[in-house]
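Bump. Still looking for Calcium uptake protein 3, mitochondrial-like isoform X1 C-alpha cells.
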Amino acid sequence: MLWEKQEGITFDEFRSFFQFLNNLEDFAIAMQMYNFASRSIGQDEFARAVYVATGLKLTRHLVHTIFKIFDVDHDDQLSYKEFIGIMKDRLHRGARVKGRHHSSFSGCVRSGARRQVKQLWRKYKEKM
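Sorry for the wait, here they are.
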C-alpha cells in the first residue's frame, strides 16, 4: 500500500495543484537546475522550489501525494524526467494528433473561420 492511512485531497489542495500546473514552466526552470547538476529533488526541496517559482505553498500532504504518484523508482526523490517530463506530456496529450501537437482551441477557431468565409463568399456571389 502506498499510504499508511488513506487521506483524500481537499478542494484547496486540488486547486493549489492546478494553479501550480498553470505555472509549470516557471517551476520547470527551477527543476532543470537540479537536472543539470544530475540531482533529483526531495520533498522539502520540491515544496520550496514550487514556492520560489510560483508563490504557491503546497501542503505537506499534497507534496507527499505528488511524490507517491510520480516517484517511479521509489527513492523519495523526483527527477526532472519523472515529474516535468510526465506533466508536460500529460498537458499536451489531449491536443496530440498522429504525433503532432494541435491546439483544440485553434482547430475550433479555424473551423469556425472557414464556415464564416464560406457564408460571406456565398452572400457575395448572390449579390453579383
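Residues 97-101 have pLDDT under 50 and may be disordered.

Edit: fixed formatting.
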